[in-house]
Design brief:
2 domains; Rhopdopsin 7-helix transmembrane proteins; Alpha-Beta Plaits; 403 residues; rod-shaped; 15 helices
């Protein structure tokens, strides 16, 4: 019973230590090595169950049942060793000599064990039970454990050799992989000398605990760190792209949107009209009065100041709408939402302000508004043309008022 209890304890510890790995598949983590480790852990857990069962069944001294469980024991051991080689192969990632050796040895060990167990049915070469139910081992069992000893020894030595060529966290992980391999080697040798003690299960338990604590957790941290770095780079790129896009779509003189942005907005509204996803919007076309005279008499620097003053005036009045500079002295405001609902009051107030400016010799801006009509307007341009026509009517009216 004490033999069986070791396997049960090892199984419980394995579940507790590797609970996070067992409940999340590699498809969710996106890390291939975690999937290989997860499969290896499941195989070890099966081995613990069968090893515990062997300890219980052997005490009953029922030869047939003991024989079946012993065969299962060796098969589960062979599968766990095979999956361990798969894990190391995935862990090493890049092609190298050990990867090739493990690939062939892993398959050889699995096939060798199956063949031995088949032969053992007819000729006891691995184990047998006498009439009293006593378990006896044969040379094939020692060959099995001997192959494992060599396998773990080669892996351990290789990992320590590779350490000289690595650095940082990778170096630490290789050292732990080497130590884990040597731990297994020691317990395999112990199992060969003491067949009635569950030393192999103890070795697996210690080895996997070491791997999980010092290798898998470190890999997970590194993987998360790389993801975080990638997210930060993507965020920086998006920010840089956003800044570049903003610069590309911003008028450098006034800070409002430029003609490129206006063309994009026109395309967007046209698509919304086509899809019937927009019901109401308005366009105000603005044109500066007297800019040519200022440029000719005071210079282009004064003209630029005049343009900026006009832009500020438009943006202050229609503060909830995008404003575009589509020409040297021409602006457009696209009214939606609250500004569209209040467009009459906003426009009346703006025109009154302009008339006062004209009397005081300040910036003068002509404006014309047109509202979208779903029944008569099928494109953005048709609304713009109506607003543009009204702007020229307003310009002529301001000129007449000036006398």
């Amino acid at each position: 019973m004490s033999y069986a209890s070791i396997g049960i304890i090892a199984l419980i510890i394995q579940i507790v230590i590797n609970f996070d790995v067992l409940k999340i598949s590699s498809r969710k983590t996106g890390v291939a090595v975690h999937g290989a480790y997860r499969r290896y852990v499941f195989s070890i857990m099966v081995y613990y169950l069968i090893d515990s069962l062997w300890g219980t069944v052997y005490g009953l001294r029922i030869n047939l049942l003991s024989y079946i469980v012993t065969v299962s024991y060796f098969i589960s051991m062979a599968i766990s060793v095979f999956l361990w080689t798969r894990y190391v192969i995935v862990y090493l990632f890049k092609k190298n000599s050990l990867k090739s050796v493990l690939n062939y040895v892993g398959w050889f060990f699995l096939l060798f064990q199956i063949i031995v167990l088949i032969i053992n049915i007819f000729i006891p070469i691995a184990f047998w039970f006498d009439e009293d139910g006593e378990y006896h081992v044969k040379y094939a069992r020692y060959m099995n454990l001997g192959l494992q000893t060599i396998l773990f020894l080669i892996t351990g030595i290789y990992m320590f050799v590779v350490v000289a060529k690595t650095h940082g966290s990778e170096r630490n992980r290789h050292q732990i992989m080497g130590i884990s391999s040597l731990i297994m080697m020691i317990f395999v040798i112990g199992q060969a000398k003491h067949p009635y003690m569950p030393l192999y299960a103890v070795g697996c338990m210690i080895s996997t605990c070491v791997l999980h604590t010092f290798v898998l957790e470190d890999e997970k941290e590194e993987h998360n760190r790389k993801i975080q770095e990638m997210k930060e780079r993507e965020l920086a790129n998006e920010k840089a792209l956003g800044s570049a896009r903003m610069m590309a779509y911003t008028d450098p003189l006034t800070g409002v949107k430029n003609k490129y942005a206006y063309i994009e907005a026109e395309k967007l509204v046209d698509s919304q009209i086509k899809n019937a996803s927009i019901n109401e919007f308005g366009i105000i076309v603005f044109d500066l009065n007297g800019l040519k005279i200022i440029n000719d008499t005071k210079g282009h620097e004064a003209g630029d100041c005049y343009i900026k003053a006009a832009s500020s005036l438009i943006c202050a009045q229609f503060k909830h709408s995008p404003v575009y500079r589509i020409g040297g002295d021409e602006f457009v405001a696209l009214l939606e939402g609250e500004d569209y609902k209040n467009h009459k009051a906003l426009l009346d107030d703006f025109e009154h302000h302009i008339e006062e400016n004209q009397q005081n010799g300040q910036v003068v801006v002509s404006s014309g508004f047109a509202s979208f009509n779903p029944d008569s307007n099928d494109i953005f341009l048709s609304v713009f043309e109506r607003a543009d026509k009204k702007m020229y009517e307003r310009k002529n009216k301001l000129k007449a008022m000036k006398g």
